[in-house]
Amino acid sequence: MPTNKLYEGVSDWLQSAVETLSAAGMTVIAPTQGEPGVVNLTRVTSAEAIAERYDNTLLPLKGQFFPITETLLEFERCEDGDVEIQTEPLPAPDEVIVLGCRPCDAAAMGTMDKVFQWDYDDVRYRARRDRATLVAFACTTPSPECFCTSVGGSPHGDEGSDVLVFGLGGDDSGGRVLLKVNTDKGRQFIDRLGDRVRPASEGVQPPSPPELARRFDTDAVKAWLDEGFDSDFWQQMALSCLGCGACSFLCPTCHCFDIVDEATWNRGQRRRNWDCCSFSLFTLHASGHNPRPEQFSRCRQRIMHKFKYFPERFGRIACVGCGRCIRACAAGRSLAEVLTEVDARQKG
Amino acid sequence: MSRAMPNVPATTDDHALIPMDYTSSKMRIASIVDETSDVKTFRLTFCDEQEGEAFDYRAGQFGLYSVFGAGEATFCIASSPTRKGYMECSVKRAGKVTGELHQCNVGDIVGFRGPYGNWFPIDLMKGKNLVFVGGGIGLAPLRSLIWNCLDLRDQFGEIAIVYGARSVSDLVYKEELETWRQMEDVSTVLTVDPGGETPEWEGEVGFVPTVLEEANPSADNAIVITCGPPIMIKFVMMSLEKLGFGHEGIYTTLENRMKCGIGKCGRCNVGNLYVCKDGPVFSYSQLQELPQEF
């Protein structure tokens, strides 16, 4: 069966999808409103819980596959001096449907896949990826901080999603929708919805994406970064950085992690936790030597990694323009503004 | 792309993905040697005999060692792959994991995963004169390679070792230094920093780069392998240039902080390279192309 096929969903398709998929034993993850103004992906069993309007989830999609914290192994020191090690089993293979991530977050998984699946294959990450179907809801109203179009994406981008859903009634998903199938997994999802979706009528096309001006050119940014490591620009641009790490924690492509033991008396766990290259301790050697001793060198690393080193290594930019780092920054710093400045320097 | 660099064994993309669950093997501490007041060498054997028999590595590779409850830390493998049945690591007490390791006794069980990373280009070194330049605990990775070469002595030309520490009591592997000093086919120069000597000290007094220049090893058909504190490496490189050594023939091993060891956790990155995957062994010419963040 060909992919890229369009289907129309009737007005209660979402309610039906959640019920049908849940009844079939699948885990449905969807954006829900917690605290006022905060939408995040949580497990739902009814479509009523799904947030109707939202720019994007506060936390990025990556956490569904690379959790904030996870157990790698458990250990217990026995009285005879031996140590019992229990490697954490793989996540259960039950199917997971993510219903309502944004296209930028789905695209970001392509970046995560590159890291977790080169040379060594991170088995827990892969298990979570393999069992999940990503149904992205196309953006109707990008927020002011969004800049996906500047990094090769689009509010209607279909990279990384198995199905892309376009709201036809003005809102995101609640009413009549058009579903675009991108992958085999997406086709299986459509098949499970039965009569709640039907092939789109002849000539029906997805709506045009909302306008979102490109703010900088990543080729120009890369060209400047290639020569700009020693520029005094970095000291200036980093002055306001508090080194809090909020940008990295909310970034859908940041993937740095720490591995630590947490133990009480004779037993404990080895855990993997999100970490961040903006922290001064991140690269600190036991000797006291620190390869990136100043905040500007850490700010530079974060941008160099996303827009120069990662593309050189893995062939793609490690940024999808979701704007979370800008929304979250307590110091009002903007990655898009920094890159616009870099772009201007290159062209200036 | 600058990551395709000469003289470094390929570590990527030429084989199937290796499944990774971050679990550790159990190893028993077979013996402990107090090298200095804050450095101990641990000899480890695999608890699972089959695992021990299957275990293989090359000089220059590293592993993630753990004390269960304290966490993991990265150290090079300090013993030679030519010596089978055990593995050794030398650990300077500096933080949480190393502190806990220093509390361990013979018979205690620790964790290990590895070996990871590339290795010294021993195949390129065959038939060449070798100059080893070490400082402090930086002798540990060199020791693996030195014994590797000494165990295959007839495959290499002249072997020179220049090693120094802050003081006499900070010299590691003291018995082996004496063994090397007495070997007729190895030229060993030992030194301590000015002020670090004792009345009985028979070696040199002076910083490693100065002593290296005085030793004046020939650059002809030679390869240098150096490891030590970053500041020592910097001045050793300048001395080697004075002595006429080309950048291509100088190798060192970087000790950036690591958590995963397999190119995922993002901690050891220098430019577009992962020290854990593309290193830890680098030629001096490679290092010069990198951002100076190591």
UniProtKB/TrEMBL annotation, chain A:
InterPro entries: 4Fe4S_Fe-S-bd (IPR017896), 4Fe4S_Fe_S_CS (IPR017900)
Domain 4Fe-4S ferredoxin-type: 231-262, 310-341
Protein name, as recorded: 4Fe-4S ferredoxin-type domain-containing protein
Regions that span the bilayer: none
Pfam families: Fer4_22 (PF17179)
From TrEMBL, chain B:
GO biological process: pyrimidine nucleotide biosynthetic process
Single GO term (MF): 2 iron, 2 sulfur cluster binding
Pfam family, one: FAD_binding_6
Swiss-Prot/TrEMBL keywords: 2Fe-2S, Electron transport, FAD, Flavoprotein, Iron, Iron-sulfur, Metal-binding, Transport
Domain spans labelled FAD-binding FR-type: 22-122
PROSITE patterns (UniProt xref): FAD_FR
Record protein name field: FAD-binding FR-type domain-containing protein
Species, as recorded: marine sediment metagenome
Highest classification ranks of the organism: unclassified sequences, metagenomes, ecological metagenomes
